[in-house]
From TrEMBL:
Lineage: unclassified sequences, metagenomes, ecological metagenomes
Keywords: Cell membrane, Membrane, Transmembrane, Transmembrane helix
UniProt topology in membrane: Multi-pass membrane protein
Cell compartments where the protein resides: Cell membrane
GO cellular component, one term: plasma membrane
Protein name as it appears in the record: SSD domain-containing protein
Length: 429
């Protein structure tokens, strides 16, 4: 920006005139960010580029008028006075409307955009103030030292031939402009929003290429989707989780998801456990441990094996498993060696029991459309199994990213309308 500015005014000394105010405005904004937010994020860190690009406009208006050939022969103070009479109001209105456009993004529910809006909008105002106060002081200082009639040759950028063409062929240029507007408007209306994060990745990056290979090897996404079921009782949440697991198993068998991991792989639904317990009670002979152990030992001897006590512990565990005393729930094993294994699947918080089922999609959910389709597919399957939507929630990095994209798009639409209204009000006032 500084090089272009120097080339435009055909002297690199002038870069100092505008470079110092720009640097001051960025430093002011950094100080403000430290006071207001105590940090920069991945969005607000770009504010300096925005300030340089927009703040240079204020300097262009001032410097261009100050070195205009019509007033360059005047003394320094009259030149500055005439400069701000002609360009001052435009600079102020431009600064206010530009800041207002950024502030309108602050209505976003996304914290990153709110901070970006507040920081950049305030930075624009700082830049405007610095250009109005500091830049004239610099011009006054150097003009006084070098003499009031210092001249600067401003590049024309070929505008003179263009203006001559406008005078000669105004009708033709209007027709060409109208055609260009129609073509570009048609293209603009049909443009699509690309929210597929995969398309933003650097091509040829080894990390992302490896991720694609791993996804292909696994036959599914490397990102898990978490389905969280909630109930006031542990029995209730285990019943819901069992129904969810059966529904997801059907989806896996039909190829709709690549993998499932759930506590229901290890714990049957309490209602099914009760049925099994009732069956054991009604068939005590079939589950008599002494008879089973005697049959096992007889089979060992018949096949030439020595009878030892190697399997006594196993038969003790089997006897407890056949005990029809109570339903086995994960909470009963929290203080055992299995507690750590069950922790990722079941937990209690705020008086509610929650279970987490881990789902592996068939592919990475890069776009909003893929994410929405996956959520709709899960919800429809759960509804078929009689599982209400308020009994479970879907989450995970892919789901959160999809929701964030939706939030950003909706907020940007609202911000566009708000920015337009604010600018119209400023211009009317």
């Amino acid at each position: 920006v500084m090089i272009l500015f120097g080339l435009s005014f055909r002297t690199f000394k002038i870069m100092f005139y505008v470079g110092l105010p720009l640097a001051l405005s960025i430093l002011w904004t950094l100080g403000f960010a430290s006071l207001a937010f105590h940090h920069l994020n991945i969005l607000t860190c770009i504010f300096s580029c925005v300030l340089i690009g927009l703040g240079i406009d204020f300097a262009i208006h001032i410097v261009n008028r100050y070195f205009d050939q019509d007033i360059v022969s005047l003394d320094v103070l009259p030149r500055l006075e005439k400069t701000f009479r002609q360009a001052g109001m435009g600079i102020i209105i431009g600064g206010i409307t530009t800041a207002a456009a950024f502030y309108s993004i602050g209505i976003s529910g996304f914290k990153g955009f709110r901070e970006l809006a507040f920081l950049t909008g305030t930075g624009i105002l700082f830049c405007m103030i610095v250009m109005i106060l500091v830049l004239p002081s610099i011009l006054l200082w150097f003009s006084s030292r070098k003499g009031p009639k210092q001249r600067v040759s401003i590049a024309g950028f070929g505008l003179k031939p263009l203006l001559n063409s406008l005078r000669k062929y105004p009708g033709s240029l209007l027709v060409v402009s109208f055609i260009a507007i129609c073509v570009l408007a048609a293209l603009g209306i049909s443009i699509k929003f690309d929210d597929n994060l995969k398309n933003f990745r650097p091509t040829g990056n080894e990390v992302f290429l490896l991720q694609d290979k791993v996804t292909a090897w696994l036959g599914g996404s490397t990102g898990k989707i978490f389905l969280v079921a909630t109930d006031k009782s542990e029995v209730g949440v285990m019943e819901t989780t069992a129904s969810i697991y059966e529904a997801l198993r059907e989806m896996k068998e039909s190829g709709m998801v690549a993998g499932i991991n759930s506590v229901s792989k290890y714990f049957r639904a309490p209602s099914l456990q009760k049925k099994n317990m009732d069956f054991i009670r009604r068939h005590p002979d079939a589950f008599d441990i002494k008879r089973i152990q005697w049959t096992f030992n007889e089979a060992l001897e018949e096949n030439g094996f020595e009878r030892l006590d190697l399997y006594d512990e196993y038969f003790g565990s089997l006897s407890r498993a056949f005990s029809p005393e109570k339903v086995l729930l994960p909470g009963l094993l929290n203080e055992t060696e299995l507690g750590g294994f069950l922790k990722p699947f079941v937990y209690q918080k705020g008086g509610y029991f929650k279970t987490v089922t881990y789902i592996t999609p068939n592919k990475d959910l890069w776009s909003r459309a893929d994410t929405a389709l996956f959520k709709e597919m899960i919800a429809r399957k759960m509804e078929e199994r009689g599982i209400k939507g308020d009994c479970f929630q879907l989450t995970g990095s892919s789901i959160l990213t999809g929701d964030l994209k939706e939030l950003i798009i909706n907020n940007m639409k609202s911000s566009l309308w708000v920015a337009g209204l604010i600018i119209m009000l400023v211009l009317l006032v």
